[in-house]
Every structure is written in C-alpha cells, then in structure tokens.
Design brief:
The complex is a heterodimer of chains A (228) and B (366). With 228 residues, chain A is α/β, with parallel strands linked by helices. Chain A is 31% helix and 25% strand. Chain B folds into two domains: 167 residues, no CATH class; 161 residues, no CATH class. Chain B is elongated and about 95 Å long. The chains are: A alpha/beta (228), B alpha+beta (366). The structure holds adenosine-5'-triphosphate (ATP) and magnesium ion. Chain B: Keywords: Cell membrane, Membrane, Transmembrane, Transmembrane helix, Transport.
Chain lengths: 228, 366
C-alpha cells in the first residue's frame, strides 16, 4: 500500500451507515451520512445526546468500520484496510483530541508528545515535541504530569499531541466539555488556528454553541442523520 | 519500554508493594532451597559419594528401610559379577550404631562395611586408608564435631573399639548420621552377620555400559535399584523431600497468583488509557510488549533482591546446627522459576490489553 502524502484531499464520508449492538437491540447510530471536510477546514458537529456524533468520529478516524458506505482520507479507503494497516494509518495520519484531554497519567506533558515518536519507531524531527508544545503555549510546563495541569492546559497538550507527525485529519470529541467559557474559547481558537496553519481537515463534536463562531461550518446530527 | 519505565516510576509505591511480596517469596525460596539441599546432603551424601551404579538387595526388599532389612550372601555377589556390563560387584554392609568417643561423648555412626582395596574402599583426605581390623575412615563432619585422627570410638553394648585412621574430604552422612567406613569383616562382627553375608551388593557399571538390572536380579535372586532410587532408603528422605517440594510448589503458585492478580488489577485500571493509546495508533503488539517488559523488569528486580537477601540470611543460618547448603544451581533454578512463573501469571493478565477497544477512548471518560 502506498500512501499519497503530497496532495491532501481531506475527509470524504459517503453514505455511511453504522449499526451498533446486536440482535433485537441494534441501533442505527449513523444513517447514510455523507460529509466532506477540506484540508484547512474546521467543521463542527452538534446535536442531541445519542445522535451519533461520537460514532461519526469513530468511523472517520478508522476506530470502527461502517456497515455501509465509504470513508476515505486523502483518497485512502480506511474501511478497505486490514486492522493493523488501519492502526498504522491512524498513527501516521490521524490525530485525536478527546474530552478532558485523556492524557496518560504517568507521562509529563513533553513525554505525551514524545510517546508518539516512539509509536512511530522511525525517528521523526528531534525537536518536534518541544516545538509543538511551545506552539500551544505549554513550553513552560513541559515537565508537569496531567494531574498537575488545569483542564485547559491538558487540552492544549492533547491538541499538541494530536498534531504530532502532521496529521491530515484531526478529530475532536467534545474537547471543551470540561472547561469554563473562557478556556473553551481559547482551546477552540487554538484548534482553528492549527487547522488553518497546518492544512488539516478537522471535525469537532461539541455541545457548546458558544464556540461555533470559530468554526468554518456547522452540521447538525439528529438520530444518526446529518443536516447542514 | 518508553511507557513501561515511566509507569513504573509513576506508580512506584504500588509496584513496590507487589515487588516486596515477590522479593519475600524469593527469600523464602532461597532458604527452602538451602534447607532442601542441606537435608538431602544430610540424608544421602554418604550414598551419593559411593562410586556405585546400583544396589542389589535381598529379593522383595521394599525401598524404605532396605539397608536395615536386607541380607545377601556371597553367591549373589558372584552372580552379579558375572553380569554383562558390570565392572565390579562388591558386598556392602550397612548398620546404624550408637557409640561413645574416648572422652565419653555419644556419637551415632552409620557403619559402611567395605572390603579394603575394593572399589568401595574410600581414599581419605587425611590419615591412612582402611587396613587394620579396627581402623575406621570417618566423614569430615565428625572431625568438625571434635573427633581426631587416632581417637578411639567404642560401640555401645558390644564394646568393640574402633580407631579413627582417616577422614574423608567432604560430608558423608546417611539418614542424618555420620558415616564411618570399616573393613567388612569388622562390620560382620558388629552386625553379628555370618561369613559371606552383607546388606547389599554394590554394583559398578563398566564405563559407558548400562547393566540390565532386571536380568541381574533374575540371575542373582535380588531386588536392585539405581543409586538415585536407593536415596529413598535413607530414613526420612522421602518424607522430607516431598514435604519441602510441596511447600516450594505452593510458593511458586502463590507468587504467580500474586503477580497475576496485581497485573489484572493494574491492567483493568489502565483500560481507558489503553483505549486512548490504541486510538492514537499504538499497536496491540507494542502495548503487549511494553506490558510484558514492565512485568519482567519488576520480577527480575524483586527476585534479584530477594535472592541476595536470602543468600545473606542463609549464610547466617548455615553457621548453626541446621542442615543448610546453598547450591548455586538450585538457587538459580528457583529464581528462574519464580521469574518465569511470575511472568506467566502477569501474561495471563496482560493479554487483556489485546481486547481493549480503541472506541472506548471516545465520549465521556469512564
Ligand atoms: N457499543 C454500543 N452498542 C450499542 N449501541 C451503542 C454503542 N455505542 C453507542 N451506541 C448507541 O449509538 C447511538 C449513538 O451514540 P453516540 O455515542 O455516537 O452518540 P453521541 O451523539 O456521541 O452522544 P453524546 O452527545 O451523548 O456523546 C446512541 O443511541 C447510543 O446509545
Ligand atoms: Mg459522544
């Protein structure tokens, strides 16, 4: 498999259907969802709880495979890949920002980023971790562990970690859920800035209508269906 | 090991607790191993040091107490001499007696009656070989207990006087009693045995040959057993070794379970973090390798510390009256087994990593 890293075409979801659960208990979490996100574009996904927003990110990021439809990132069909290849693709081309950071408790801020180098095995730019941490304004707290950081600081480190290696696709699931209003704005502004600067296709799920003005586009999800 | 080392450091008090348990078990293991080797030495070093391939006892003799019950005659010795693959067959006398030293101190002796000049006749490290009727060559442990070359030892009731003419270089005991070699004729006098009678036929195989014991038994009318099997004839040997083995097996199991339980809790505790790691692209193999390396590291450190401490305690114990002998291969085997079984216990827990679903990283933190 050869991956095209020179021309970025962003995320293309086409007719994606995802059913969850088994037997009589199946839920159609995604119902023929189509979505295109261009490089450098920040798209917000809003909608009620249980609408399928996290499921959308799971399919887009190759954490799960849709029952129907296709999912391509920069022209690479994630659903067609073997699981190990999908894991490798996630590692190399997709960044995740989770709710409340989801940093590794044992690692300092800088080690959260260096871990990504380690997962890649091949040596990346030696100063990348330091640079990315400085980019999000966390250079001064590089040696603190997650429990020694505020929620907003944790999210900054989480964003820096997601940007390690220069991903094509950035997926954020309620990154501001645990933050106050001011902190939420800072974090989403940072996401928007990095999205444009690095030409990443970014999808952010949020309940926070306040931060939508930083986004290029807002789509709403209701009962597994998307309306923009 | 990037993650493994940092997690060890981060959760050091938790890991230290488990490591302490494993280290204490390792200490116990070393002490038990020393006790076990010491008891085996005390029980059978006299037999083990005989240049004998097998013993043939009177027909139908059971293993426990064979040396005290069996009586064979010279015809049976002759029959064994004629067997293919047998280099030498010698009559061997064995009796436990109570005796007193010249100073009046009581001494228990395991008398080994051998024909002077035969392959059973020991070469002493000090003094002279068997020769005169009343000369005995004793285990080095008797010298440690205060007996001297030239001392007289009187066998109780019979009043037979024996003179210490030599001593072996090493410990030779049988059933926890010190061995004294003496001429077969003198043994017969003490044991009240007839001419030509002895306890068993001591058989030495030709180099590279393995005599057919069953055929020899049929020809000589005996029941034979290899030297190692004959260890069970030492009083208490089977009970002691099986008790110690049982304790050791339990300790291995406990250690593996403790390690397994710890890593089960640890892995479950890490489930969400592992899901995040999988989501951001860590492969199963990476996380499994990291987890196993962590377990190996902590096990090696804990066992290493425990073994060193055990050897230290053992050195103190060995100075006393307790039969205690630290043998490097036995200690290394115990440490190796502890580490291997611990790793196995940890592995059963760590394989859970493979089942962690990266999907769990999304949504609310569970
Ligand atoms: N593992 C699962 N098995 C069965 N059903 C599931 C599973 N995970 C989610 N669902 C269901 O799929 C639907 C979509 O869930 P999803 O988590 O995508 O919603 P969401 O929009 O992210 O909600 P929230 O805003 O509460 O995070 C819901 O009805 C949910 O109950
Ligand atoms: Mg959700």
């Amino acid at each position: 498999m050869t991956l095209d890293t020179t021309t970025r075409t962003g995320l293309h979801l086409a007719g994606v259907t995802l059913r969850l659960g088994d037997g009589d208990d199946t839920v159609t979490a995604l119902d023929e969802v189509s979505l295109t996100v261009a490089p450098g574009e920040l798209v917000a996904v809003v909608g009620p709880s249980g609408a399928g927003k996290s499921s959308l990110l799971a399919v887009a990021g190759g954490l799960t495979v849709p029952d129907e439809g296709s999912n391509t990132v920069d022209g690479n069909d994630l659903a067609a890949m073997k699981p190990a290849a999908r894991t490798a693709y996630r590692r190399q081309h997709i960044g995740f920002v989770f709710q409340s950071g989801n940093l590794i408790p044992a690692l300092t801020a800088i080690d959260q980023l260096r871990l990504i180098h380690h997962l890649h095995r091949r040596r990346a730019e030696p100063r990348e971790a330091e640079q990315r941490l400085a980019d999000v304004g966390m250079a001064g707290k590089a040696h603190r562990r997650p429990h020694q950081l505020s929620g907003g600081e944790r999210q900054r480190v989480g964003i820096a970690r997601a940007l390690m290696g220069g991903p094509s696709l950035l997926l954020a699931d309620e990154p501001t859920a645990a933050l106050d209003r001011a902190r939420s704005h800072e974090v989403v502004e940072l996401l928007a800035r990095e999205t444009r600067r690095a030409g990443v296709a970014t999808v952010m799920v949020t309940h926070d209508t306040d931060v939508l003005r930083h986004c290029d586009r807002v789509v709403e999800m209701v009962d597994g269906k998307l309306s923009g | 090991m990037f993650l493994a080392l940092r997690e060890l450091r981060f959760a050091r008090s938790r890991f230290a607790l488990m490591a302490a348990v494993v280290a204490l078990i390792a200490v116990l293991m070393v002490l038990l191993s020393g006790l076990s080797s010491g008891l085996v030495n005390d029980g059978v070093s006299g037999l083990r040091r005989l240049p004998v391939t097998a013993f043939a006892f009177a027909d139908g003799t059971r293993a426990d107490g064979a040396f005290s019950r069996s009586v064979i005659d010279s015809g049976q010795v002759e029959a064994w001499r004629g067997q293919p693959g047998v280099e030498a067959a010698e009559p061997f006398g064995n009796t436990l007696v109570n005796a007193h030293s010249g100073a009046g101190a009581p001494i228990d002796l395991a008398l080994f009656g051998v024909r002077p000049g035969s392959f059973l006749d020991p070469v002493p490290a000090g003094g002279t070989r068997l020769g005169g009727e009343d000369g005995i060559v004793v285990s080095s442990t008797l010298l440690d207990a205060g007996l001297r070359l030239g001392d007289t030892v009187t066998v109780d009731r019979l009043g037979v006087e024996l003179t210490v003419v030599g001593a072996t270089a090493d410990q030779r005991t049988f059933g926890h009693v010190d061995v004294a070699y003496l001429p077969l004729d003198t043994w017969r006098r003490i044991h009240n045995a007839a001419d030509g009678e002895a306890t068993a036929v001591a058989i030495k195989a030709r180099a590279g040959a393995a005599p057919d014991l069953a055929a020899g038994d049929a020809a000589a009318g005996t029941t034979s057993m290899t030297l190692a099997d004959a260890f069970a004839t030492s009083p208490g040997y089977t009970a002691e070794t099986s008790t110690l083995t049982l304790i050791q097996v339990f300790l291995y199991a406990i250690s593996a379970l403790v390690v397994g339980a710890f890593f089960t809790v640890w892995t479950i505790h890490r489930t969400h973090e592992l899901a995040v790691l999988r989501a951001i692209g860590a492969s199963r193999a990476y996380l499994l390798r990291d987890g196993l390396a962590q377990a190996l590291l902590i096990l090696v450190a804990a066992c290493g510390t425990g073994v060193l401490a055990g050897v230290g305690v053992g050195a103190l114990v060995a100075d006393g009256d307790v039969p205690f002998a630290l043998e490097t291969p036995a200690v290394l085997t115990a440490a190796g087994l502890l580490i291997t079984l611990g790793l196995l216990g940890a592995a059963t827990a760590i394989v859970r990593i493979a089942a962690v679903n990266p999907l769990a990283a999304l949504g609310a933190q569970r």
